[in-house]
TrEMBL record:
PANTHER family: RIBONUCLEASE P PROTEIN SUBUNIT P40. It holds the Pfam family Ribonuc_P_40. This is Ribonuclease P 40kDa subunit-domain-containing protein. It comes from Rhodocollybia butyracea. GO terms for biological process: endonucleolytic cleavage in ITS1 to separate SSU-rRNA from 5.8S rRNA and LSU-rRNA from tricistronic rRNA transcript (SSU-rRNA, 5.8S rRNA, LSU-rRNA); tRNA 5'-leader removal. One of its GO terms (molecular function) is ribonuclease P activity. One of its GO terms (cellular component) is ribonuclease MRP complex.
Length: 411
């Protein structure tokens, strides 16, 4: 395994209070899968099950033109106070992530559209062209991203608002002709409302609320235990500094060690038999050596799949860091890995921690959600060694963030 350093960014730190860890969940507004892997530990697993509230989300149908027409009150009633975020999921009777036109409303209170050339030309709204590569490829296929801060209604002229509302009404008329309905299939979650309040709020927002599709889904955790596998003994360090030949060699060794750890995490997530202590595969067919040093034991894999918001991810990270920092040595885990996979069909998958609430002072990276794109991160955390003070554990973490070539986040 070898990282593509143009598409993967590695960072490391010695404190769980680092801003990178504190802002990690908030920077990724829409998550579709979380994988937690750790050496089996009943104390930690019980702490998770008792402290974490299962996330939930709603599938429903909405009129986008209604949201745009009522944008200022929408932000006040729904997005800001209730922490509700939305992501489109196709049209018609089935929810789909394979659509040419997609949109979302994230926790900034900004509506972002990613639309094909025909839709962009028909809307007549200003947007930014999405293109990657060089030469002719840089011209793109006509896809554009349109960002509409819904909170600015009072600062806009009546003419601008009327033009935008008319554009969305024309879009709904076109969608009615093409797919049979102006409504969008939408996924929604709230960072603060209960299941009952969320349902009430969304039903009040929906058009013809008695006839539309509406379903509340609770994300269930799936547990799996792999027995008798090679488990690495993790000792994390910061990346070596320096520019001389010796330092460069140390950096290469550091990256090799980190890559081996992340490879192990990936294989454990797939339940690869190569990790089994009694694996006897033909070396001419498959060759794999676990990170060294290692031990043989059991590994627990917990997975959450659905439409998951930043608050649950941050709660999960908080529970992990608390256990690693505060648990006595007899109960403490050697390490924990947490892997997150974004909703890759979203026009926005990363929001800078520097962004202001309800503002666009830092624009999200351009991306093409219709391509086969990757957007994931993996965080490995360890309790480290006992510190100078009795009972105090020094902690360390390493984070790998990966995006596909149709995402401009890393250039």
């Amino acid at each position: 395994m070898s990282f593509d350093h143009c598409r993967v960014e590695i960072s490391a730190g010695l404190s769980f209070e680092d801003t990178k860890i504190k802002n990690l969940a908030r920077s990724h507004p829409f998550t579709q899968q979380l994988d937690l892997i750790f050496p089996s530990n009943t104390v930690f697993q019980n702490a998770l099950e008792t402290s974490l509230k299962a996330p939930q989300y709603v599938k429903l149908q909405l009129s986008l033109s209604k949201i745009v027409a009522d944008n200022a009150s929408f932000i006040q009633k729904y997005a800001t106070q209730s922490g509700i975020s939305f992501l489109s999921a196709g049209s018609g009777p089935k929810f789909s992530t394979q659509e040419e036109d997609v949109w979302c409303i994230d926790h900034r209170g900004v509506l972002t559209l990613s639309v094909c050339k025909d839709t962009y030309d028909a809307l007549g709204l200003a947007g930014k062209r999405v293109a990657f590569g060089k030469g002719k490829a840089k011209q793109g296929d006509g896809r554009h991203v349109i960002s509409i801060p819904l909170y600015t209604k009072e600062a806009e002229s009546t003419k601008v608002r009327a033009q935008r509302e008319a554009a969305f009404k024309r879009w709904e008329e076109r969608r009615t002709r093409e797919v049979g309905s102006p409504l969008w299939n939408v996924l929604a979650f709230s960072e603060s409302l209960s299941a009952e309040d969320l349902e009430t709020t969304l039903r009040n927002l929906a058009t013809d609320r008695d006839k539309i599709y509406f379903e509340t889904i609770q994300v269930q955790c799936q547990n799996n235990v792999s027995t008798d596998i090679h488990i690495p003994i993790v000792q994390l360090t910061l990346r070596p500094q320096g520019k001389d030949a010796s330092a460069k060699e140390e950096v290469e060794d550091w990256y090799e060690t980190i890559e081996e750890l992340f490879e192990w995490v990936g294989m454990a997530g797939f339940g690869a038999t190569r990790l089994k202590a009694n694996d006897r595969v033909d070396p001419f067919v498959a060759v794999y050596d676990p990170p060294s040093p290692s031990r043989v034991g059991n590994v627990t894999h917990m997975r959450w799949s659905g439409f998951i918001g930043p608050s649950f991810v941050q709660s999960l990270i908080g529970t992990i860091t608390h256990q690693l920092s505060q648990s006595p040595p007899t109960d403490c885990l050697d390490f924990i890995s947490l892997t997150s996979h974004a909703c890759i069909w979203s026009p926005v998958s990363y929001i800078s921690p520097k962004v202001q609430q309800g503002a666009m002072n830092v624009i999200p990276p351009l991306r093409d959600p219709t391509r086969e794109v990757e957007d994931s991160w993996c965080l490995i955390m360890t309790s480290g060694h006992v510190g100078e003070k009795e009972g105090e554990n020094s902690c360390a973490w390493v984070l790998a963030e990966s995006v596909g070539k149709h995402d401009a986040r890393f250039g």
